[in-house]
Inverse folding.
């Protein structure tokens, strides 16, 4: 079974780097974004999912601006 990684904020420069790194490392990778992540997902060759699917992944990276980290974590964390 391959590990699955989700990069929240996967359309920015750091998020794209993380997604590409995980993919090169052999993980199944998905990205999510507040905006449309379709183009970034296609370029990277990864899946696009809503951030709320974070519980389905083995690794979750929050690659969002520092002032958005608390809201991003709260939106995907356990309820």
């Amino acid at each position: 079974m391959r590990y699955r990684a989700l990069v929240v904020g996967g359309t920015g420069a750091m998020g794209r780097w993380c997604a590409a790194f995980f993919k090169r490392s052999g993980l199944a990778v998905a990205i999510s974004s507040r905006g449309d992540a379709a183009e970034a997902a296609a370029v990277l060759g990864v899946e696009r999912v809503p951030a709320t699917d974070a519980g389905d992944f083995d690794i979750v990276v929050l690659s969002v601006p520092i002032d958005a980290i608390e809201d991003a974590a709260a939106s995907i964390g356990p309820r």
Q: What stands out?
A: The chain has three helices and four strands. The first helix runs from residue 13 to 24.
